[in-house]
Amino acid sequence: MQEWTFLTNHAHVLLCVVRDPQARMRDIAEQVGVTERAAQRIVVDLVEAGYLERTREGRRNRYRLHAELPLRHPMDRDTDIGQLVALLAGTDTTLNNAT
Fold first, then answer.
1. DSSP annotation string for 23-90
2. What integer best gives the mean pLDDT of the chain?
3. pLDDT above 90 for 97
4. At 8, is the pLDDT very low, low, confident or very high (cuts 50, 70, 90)?
5. pLDDT, tens digit, for every residue of 24-69?
6. Taking the alpha carbons of 4, 46, 58, 21 in that order, is the dihedral positive or negative?
């Protein structure tokens, strides 16, 4: 029987970035249990969807969460991503905003 989890890899990557806005892809991939390339694709998805904003600081990227955006599924559109992240990460994203 295949093991499953309640959260997707996208959610796990997002949580890693919120917890450490300057995290290296290698570290994110290791924490989530995916390849570094998969972690990069997921971050690109999150940036393109507007949930994360990427800025370059020297040789590293820094990410900022746009906590006000709604979840993507029609059933969840009344909940913003910040509420979900705050619940799962145990942080107040309105104060932190992954900056």
1. --HHHHHHHHTS-HHHHHHHHHHHHHTTSEEEEEETTEEEEEE-TTSBPSSGGGTTSBHHHHHHHHHT
2. 91
3. no
4. very high
5. 999 999 999 999 999 999 999 999 999 999 999 999 999 999 999 9
6. negative
DSSP-derived pairing of the beta strands 52-57 and 60-65: antiparallel
| CB 17 within 8 Å of CB 52 | yes
Asked whether 14 and 51 are in contact (CB, 8 A), the reply is yes
Alpha-carbon span 64 to 47, nearest angstrom: 10
Q: Is the pTM of this model over 0.90?
A: no
Short-list 51, 55, 54, CA closest to 81: 51
DSSP-assigned letter for residue 6: S
